[in-house]
Design goal:
7 strands; seven-stranded parallel β-sheet; alpha/beta; about 230 residues; 8 helices
């Protein structure tokens, strides 16, 4: 069976995507920082009959990234790597004049440096796969200027650029930066706690990711809303 590594997989979009892949028969290696929640997620997904390895830890830890790839190797390799784990840089978000620089460094470390580090670890196995794929979960804040979203948006813009270059350097792989659009997630609630407007559940955008996996378009940046409209 194909094997996927998904970071930030205990809840939100990571869990919703993992659920959809498990239902399709994928074996999974899942990462998150909160061990108990990740354990519950893995137990639920294992109900689909696939193999699920849950490894709590911090993606900024090189040893943890190595552990994730080693676990995937035991399952047969890496066909898909989803860099979904994210950090905001400040909770709630703040204007650039007050953005803590340590917070910005942390966002860059999680959203960019750790994502590239995991790609580097997994690259030999991705190259060996017949359908090696990397998904970088992006944001519209990477491409648009929204007040208070400067630090987070800058980190996601950097991630987008790394994904674009990786697609050029690894033409046999598919490398997609995917903007999932607005979603009701804990990350958004932490970013803008006063915004109580209803937003779509993460599961509602998962079909966009599945469409990419089914149709395998060229490497590039894609928006989930556009992919959903084109179904």
């Amino acid at each position: 069976m194909p094997v996927a590594i998904i970071t930030g997989a205990s809840k939100g979009l990571g869990r919703a995507l993992a659920e959809a892949l498990a239902a399709r028969g994928w074996d999974l290696v899942l990462d998150a920082r909160t061990a108990e929640v990740l354990k519950e997620t893995a137990a639920a997904l294992a109900g689909h009959g696939t193999r699920v390895t849950a490894l709590p830890g911090d993606v900024t830890d090189p040893a943890h990234r190595s552990e994730l790839v080693a676990a995937a190797r035991k399952l047969g390799g890496v066909d898909l790597l989803v860099n979904n784990a994210s950090a905001l840089g400040a909770e709630p978000l703040t204007r650039l004049e007050g953005l803590p620089l340590d917070g910005l460094r942390h966002a860059l470390e999680v959203n960019v440096v750790a994502a590239l580090g995991l790609v580097q670890e997994a690259l030999p196995l991705l190259r060996d796969s017949q359908a090696g794929t990397v998904i970088a979960v992006s944001s519209d804040a990477a491409a648009e200027a929204y007040e208070t979203w400067g630090g987070y948006g800058a980190s996601k813009a950097a991630l987008d650029h790394l994904a674009a270059v990786l697609g050029e350097e690894e033409p046999r792989l598919r490398v997609w930066a995917v903007d999932p659009g607005d979603m009701a997630t804990d990350l958004y609630a932490a970013a803008v706690p006063d915004d109580l407007d209803p937003r779509p559940e993460p599961a509602s955008v998962v079909p966009a990711f599945l469409r990419l996996l089914d149709e395998r378009p060229v490497s590039g940046r894609y928006g989930a809303p556009s992919l959903l409209e084109g179904r």
